[in-house]
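Q: My hope is that you can spare some time for a protein that puzzles me. Underneath my words sits a plain record pairing an amino acid chain with its backbone structure tokens. Those tokens are not coordinates but codes from a learned vocabulary of shapes. Thank you; the sequence and its tokens follow:
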Amino acid sequence: MKILLFAVALLLIAFAIHLVVWRIRVPRQPYLVLLALFTTVMLTGMMAASALPSLQHFAPGPWWQWVHVSLFYMVLACAYIIFYSTLEADSPSTSIVKFVELGGAQGRARTDIQALITDDILLKSRLRSLLNEGLARHEGECFRLTPKGHVWANLFTLWMKILNIPRGGG
């Protein structure tokens, strides 16, 4: 139980800091900042709990409990970062749900929903994310991958080969 409570306490601290920072200003590279934030909170919290006598009562005991805390914490942190990407991006599903909700009790016609989903909705936020994260650069009318983008593209391709998923992409 101590492992669960300690990890949840660290997550709540990270979420609180995340909320304060984002209310002031959303960082240019939010995923990198979130990863750094969650990692820093975990490491700082673990060091504080092991070094400060007043917190040692709440700290996990043997080394393997610390490993459990870190694994549990980082899995939840990574899951949240993935979830955050769905909140940040203007995904087709999110756009449809918001659009239908704004229709109130009468709802929305299928043709209205189809008119909502355009290439702009599908691509704009994703291209902006690629640029902001340094995965691509915009040159005239073209988007080109940066070296960092090529690394990710190669990782995706490798994982797709391992899972036997057709490459796609036209």
In short: The chain has three domains: 2-88, 90-132, 136-170. The first strand starts at residue 136 and ends at 139. Helices lie at 2-24, 30-51, 63-88, 92-102, 110-116, 119-132, 147-162. Strands lie at 136-139, 142-145.
